[in-house]
Amino acid sequence: MLEQLDAAQRDLLTAVLRRRDPELESEVAGWTSPTTAQIGRLAQALQTETATSTDEDWEPTEYGKSVHRLMVDIMNLWPYPD
Prior knowledge:
The chain is globular, with a radius of gyration of 12 Å. The protein is mainly α. The protein has helices spanning 7-20, 22-28, 36-51, 62-77.
């Protein structure tokens, strides 16, 4: 799964998961086709990171925008299975 992301995306995803869900970080490398539950856990970690990366006006910081873009890219690569 991770090989479908570029180096910057992999680094960002690793940093977020290390902070938000270390167990998931160790699992992601072995995924070939993520399940609905795995995608849900991944989305939750990225959403939490995005939500906590706001400025004093509750607008996303540049970092928060980067995390959000990563989440969108991942959801486009691996949409929830039917």
